[in-house]
Amino acid sequence: MNLEQRVLGLLRRARGAHPGETGLDDALAGVGEPLTIAITGGPGAATVREILTDQSFHIGPATTADAVLHLFPHTPDVHIPAQARDQSVIGVLTHADEIGGGRLDALTSARRIARRYTADPRLRGVCQTVVPVAGLLARTALTLTPSELDRLTDLASRPRADIDAQLLSVDRIRSTAPDLLDRFGLFGIRLGVTLVRQGFADRDALAAELVTRSGLADLRTQIGTRFCERSHVLKARSALAFLDDFLRRAGDRVLRAEVERLTAGAHEFVEVRTLDAVRANQIPLPSDVAGEVERLLGGDGATITSRLGVRGDPGKLRAAALRALRQWRVRAENPVAGRQFVETAQVVVRTCEGMVARLT
Questions:
Q1: Is the dihedral of CA 108, 109, 112, 117 positive or negative?
Q2: pTM of the model as a whole
Q3: List of domains in the chain
Q4: Among 77, 190, 245, 333, which is most exposed with the fewest C-beta within 10 angstroms?
Q5: Residues near 345 by Cβ (< 8 Å), separated by ≥ 6?
Q6: Could you tell me whether strands 35-41 and 127-132 are parallel, antiparallel, or unpaired per DSSP bridges?
Q7: 7 close to 262: Cβ distance less than 8 angstroms
Q8: Could you give the CA distance from residue 250 to residue 245 in angstroms, rounded to a whole number?
Q9: Mind listing the pLDDT tens digit for each residue in 102-161?
Q10: Number of C-alpha atoms within 13 angstroms, CB side, residue 128?
């Protein structure tokens, strides 16, 4: 049985042992539903919720979420609330367009800050990555109107010195285009005018480029690779967490022991725990293999191509998986390696064996 089937089996047994508990019915139904992602922190939660319209997941409360988007301001505050620390977390650096007074290189500066956050020892092992997003610009890009394109085109057609002077400050542009300022912000107007000058004269083309420049495209990619590709594991983990809490309150030691065995022993969960520990530097690994361990355990995405870092036909992928398997079996059997290294290598071996089996 796969992980989902084993979780469903435990939920059904619990429902049979404790009839009338509606929470168990909800948990059973929830296993097959789309991923639930919570938005915590701030500011900008309403805007992020609005721009993330996706049928592959839905936004819900933190108490029932399978994963979390935690919003950071662009200040040294890197605190993540305790309730999010047992879940998979992607950080979002909000209002990224406001960094540096809305200059055209604001997102470049925001990416540097995001990389610093991602590497912060207080966050590694808790937050998988941090993505800068200009939420206002993303929202406007998704709903860009023909009249707004005409306004940007008109501004771009005027003498560059005049328009550049007008776009020096919020006060200057507010006197002539307050509606554009409310929709785009100063950074968005500057970027929109620049892109129109560069040839993005079609509304769809301009909107797509603004979505990319806003950081929304990268955020969607990160949600896809880090959450959605592993959704069955995240959904199973949430269901088992609920079931463990329910059985503890119900005093059902027998079923709770089975939940604990599944949580501790299922390779999918072992893989996630090992990956989190490697990211948090809790497992001492040589620098030349730490990145490989993260990649093979799904740190860059849970698909086989992401794990192997190789693209090609199944034969090429299988050859790469076999190479990785042989290499990590040797490492796992190294008599002078430390216990933590050997245990980590054994987890990687199990992951590689699974990939080889799927490609055979």
A1: negative
A2: 0.88
A3: 33-134+215-226 (3.40.50.300), 139-214 (no CATH), 266-359 (no CATH)
A4: 77
A5: 328, 331, 332, 334, 337
A6: unpaired
A7: yes
A8: 9
A9: 788 889 999 998 998 888 887 877 888 999 999 999 999 999 999 999 999 999 998 988
A10: 25
